[in-house]
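Q: Please design a sequence for this.
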């Protein structure tokens, strides 16, 4: 139990060694920091290994009557109800921008969602 507690509270900043991209062991603190920087730089800024997926955009006409299109007044109400000064989403566009654009944004968003 004491060993488990000791491992649990061990400081993660005390990495003694790490392997570089060529599997060579790095033991100097500065080399370890540089390797971590390389790793995360490559992870977030490097080439993505993800593959794009082709989606089938066909829609069965028999099921079309089950889907109701979004109306402009619904988009207008949704924008009105959103609180301002909040963190942006994946689109990186704050709600204040959509409000400033007015009816142009409402028409565009309605077309986008339909």
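A: Design:
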């Amino acid at each position: 139990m004491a060993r488990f507690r000791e491992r649990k509270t061990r400081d993660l900043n005390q990495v003694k060694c790490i392997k570089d991209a060529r599997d060579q062991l790095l033991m100097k603190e500065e080399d370890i920091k540089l390797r971590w920087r390389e790793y995360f730089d490559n992870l977030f800024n490097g080439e993505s290994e993800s593959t794009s997926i082709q989606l089938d955009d066909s829609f069965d006409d028999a099921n079309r009557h089950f889907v109701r299109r979004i109306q402009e007044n619904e988009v207008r109400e949704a924008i009105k109800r959103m609180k301002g000064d909040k963190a942006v989403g994946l689109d990186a566009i704050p709600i204040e921008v959509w409000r400033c654009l007015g009816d142009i944004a409402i028409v565009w968003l309605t077309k986008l969602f339909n």
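Q: Thanks. Anything notable?
A: The mean pLDDT is 82. Residues 29-45 form the longest helix (17 residues).
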